[in-house]
Backbone:
């Protein structure tokens, strides 16, 4: 803030999205954040994803911190958004669901074929996240 200049006031509003619209926006997004517990602390990882079979599918590497919660069927959150900081508009979608390590070889191959990881280096593990609770809002 510059001395002598009052702050600009904007009437920014958030509007809740219906679940169908939130899922549509999530399906268009390619990057998101998976939130889980790791060593009793919150952890967040930036990942790319695809929606298949009513779940969020991500790929990761052997030894990734997310694999522990996925093997245990832990509840996780997944968030994706799109924000225009100049226009101060955008949207955010948060999904809460159960993470599962995909073990079926046929499912693994299908999901691996549908999602090319952005990060190289043996992203051979597939994690599916159920979409149990879906919330979203649009910023206007």
Residues:
């Amino acid at each position: 803030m510059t001395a002598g200049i009052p702050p600009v006031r904007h009437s920014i509003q958030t509007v809740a999205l219906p679940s169908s619209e939130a899922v549509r926006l999530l399906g268009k997004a390619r990057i998101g954040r998976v939130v889980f517990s790791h060593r009793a602390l919150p952890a967040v990882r930036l990942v790319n994803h695809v929606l298949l079979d009513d779940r969020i599918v991500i790929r990761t590497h052997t030894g990734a911190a997310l694999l522990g919660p996925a093997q245990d069927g832990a509840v996780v959150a997944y968030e994706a958004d799109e924000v225009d900081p100049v226009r101060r508009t955008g949207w955010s979608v948060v999904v809460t669901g159960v993470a599962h390590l995909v073990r079926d070889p046929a499912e693994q191959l299908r999901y691996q074929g549908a999602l090319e990881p952005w990060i190289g280096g043996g992203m051979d593990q597939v994690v599916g996240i159920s979409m149990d609770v879906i919330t979203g809002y649009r910023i206007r």
